[in-house]
């Protein structure tokens, strides 16, 4: 039996997918990624809501992370209920039915000198 670690609600207040990239795809496509870790013995059913500064939120996007697994989810690749717009600031909130851990990573390849950023999302104290 695996011990579930983490929280059921996480937030990434900073999000931005550059509109263009340099270098070969898919490795060097500018992107945002949520790395989701599920250490429990149950599948994690995760709902993601995207927030904007100038329009209503979109979502929920639904993702399943199998028990005792990790999923690296590129925000560029999620399309249902709609694609996340490029070149637009946004934030994201993750709600899960079991505790998970969420890490945020961005690859910005607009220049030949790539920039990579990574940080742990904010865990809600309500979870």
* CATH level 3 topology: Hypothetical Protein Tm1070, Chain: A
CATH superfamily: TM1070-like
Q: Which structural class do the helices and strands define?
A: mainly beta
CATH class: Mainly Beta
Q: What's the gyration radius in Å?
A: 15 Å
Largest beta sheet, briefly? Answer: 8 strands, antiparallel
What does it look like?
Helices cover 0% and strands 52% of the residues. Strand 6 and strand 7 (115-120) form a beta hairpin. The relative contact order is 0.36. It has strands at 7-15, 31-38, 44-51, 58-65, 69-74, 90-108, 115-120, 122-123. It is built from no helices and eight strands. The chain has a single domain, classed as Hypothetical Protein Tm1070, Chain: A, CATH 2.60.290. It starts with 6 loop residues before the first strand and ends with a strand. Strands 1, 2, 3, 4, 5, 6, 7 and 8 form an eight-stranded antiparallel sheet that branches. The mean pLDDT is 82. The chain has 127 residues and is an all-beta fold. The radius of gyration is 15 Å and the shape is globular. Pfam families: ASRT. InterPro entries: ASRT, TM1070-like_sf. This is Sensory rhodopsin transducer.
């Amino acid at each position: 039996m695996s011990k579930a670690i983490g929280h059921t609600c996480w937030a990434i207040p900073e999000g931005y997918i550059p509109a263009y990239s340099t270098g070969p795809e898919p490795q060097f496509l500018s992107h945002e990624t949520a790395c989701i870790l599920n250490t429990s013995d149950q599948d994690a059913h995760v709902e993601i809501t995207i927030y904007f500064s100038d329009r209503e939120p979109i979502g929920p996007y639904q993702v399943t992370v199998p028990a005792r697994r990790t999923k690296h989810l590129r925000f560029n690749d999620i399309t249902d209920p709609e694609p996340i717009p490029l070149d637009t600031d946004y934030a994201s909130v993750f709600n899960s039915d079991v505790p998970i851990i969420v890490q945020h990573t961005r690859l910005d390849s607009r220049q030949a000198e790539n920039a990579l950023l990574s940080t742990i999302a904010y865990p809600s104290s309500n979870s």
